[in-house]
Amino acid sequence: MIVWINGAFGAGKSSTARELVDLIPHSTLYDPEATGDAVRRLLPAKRLAEVEDYQDLPVWRRLVVDTAAALLAEVGGVLVVPMTLLRQEYRDEVFGGLAARRIEVRHILLAPEETILRQRIDTREEYGDPEVDARVREWSHGHLDPYRAALDWLAADAYTVDNSALTATETARTVADAVRDGRAAPCGIVQTPEPTGETVAAGVLLFDEQDRFLLVDPTYKPGWEFPGGVVEPGEPPARAGMREVAEEVGLALDAVPRLLLVDWERPEPPKYGGLRLLFDGGTLRPDDTERLSLPGAELRDWRFVTEGEAADLLPPVRYQRLRWALRARERGTVLNLEAGVPVG
User: Fold this and answer.
1) Cβ-based neighbour number of residue 258 at 10 Å
2) Residue 259 contacts by C-beta under 8 Å, 6 or more apart in sequence?
3) Are strands 341-342 and 335-338 parallel, antiparallel or unpaired?
4) What CA–CA distance (Å, rounded) separates 255 from 252?
5) When you count CB atoms within 10 A of the terminal residue's CB, does the N or C end of the chain come out lower?
6) 318 phi, psi to nearest 5 deg
């Protein structure tokens, strides 16, 4: 299990985490800033100059998941992780990666009143160098706007502790009690285990009466997606698509969907690639559209979009697949693709 302590810079995450490992039996402290320091030493200066924050580096997010999993495999017990995550898509990616490894996350938000938070930032002196401390205070104040913008999803996702009037020890006790009695419940993000080889996945395009198609927003990875998922061993791909539609948006399709395309996705480590199939699930009736829901915790939202709107929502590879699937639907044919390009 991981106890992830989130909050604005200056909220008291690190001091609370240090106290918390003494209160939760068999717990170990892991600070992802150490991973950030390692990434800064490993990557070329040119690559580092392309981002403002090491959290923007996909390698950092991947290494945080891998390091946390490796530490738990080594020492077991509970991992206490103090780290600010203000971008929801990064939370999705990191927590989704942990969920794929069957690692439970208890998400805690430390949320002191802003006046208290600003006072704490203004009095921070932790590096012994006035210039460095001044830069850290400026950095922390500069991230208060993103923190306020993230509060809606943070408050909905995490167990919130107002530590305005609490010491680090008192805050840690509050967190430990919430974890112990279940008030800080496991995070709802779920994900299938990481594949160990090439996979087959089936997606389904569902259309409304305006000929827009349905996209869903997964909580466990960045970018939007078609309803669908990995085909289970022994399962017909079209039936897998029907199962995923029922699980993800609550609709039971009346007929087996028609195949539009088969796309071979090349392996790009750490991804294994495999076959990606897209099916035409037909046009939904108005009452079907009204019954759309998100029964599980793995999806945040859904919407009907046009081909042009999808360009801003889908990752490039999936958008290419979509474009050819729509052409196949218009022509009443089936297309064979390799890495998004028709062949044969």
Assistant:
1) 14
2) 238, 277, 278, 279, 280, 334
3) antiparallel
4) 9
5) C
6) -70, -30
> Are the C-beta atoms of 29 and 18 separated by less than 8 Å?
yes
Name the residue with tokens 């699930």: 281
Dist CA 5 CA 171 (whole Å): 11
pTM metric for this prediction: 0.66
**160 - beta bridge partners?**
109
The per-residue pLDDT for range 78-128, each reduced to its tens digit, is 999 999 999 888 888 899 889 888 899 999 999 999 888 888 887 777 666
Dihedral through CA 108, CA 114, CA 120, CA 122, nearest 10?
A: 140
Task: Give pLDDT tens digits for 181-226.
Answer: 999 998 877 666 666 688 999 999 999 999 999 999 887 777 899 9
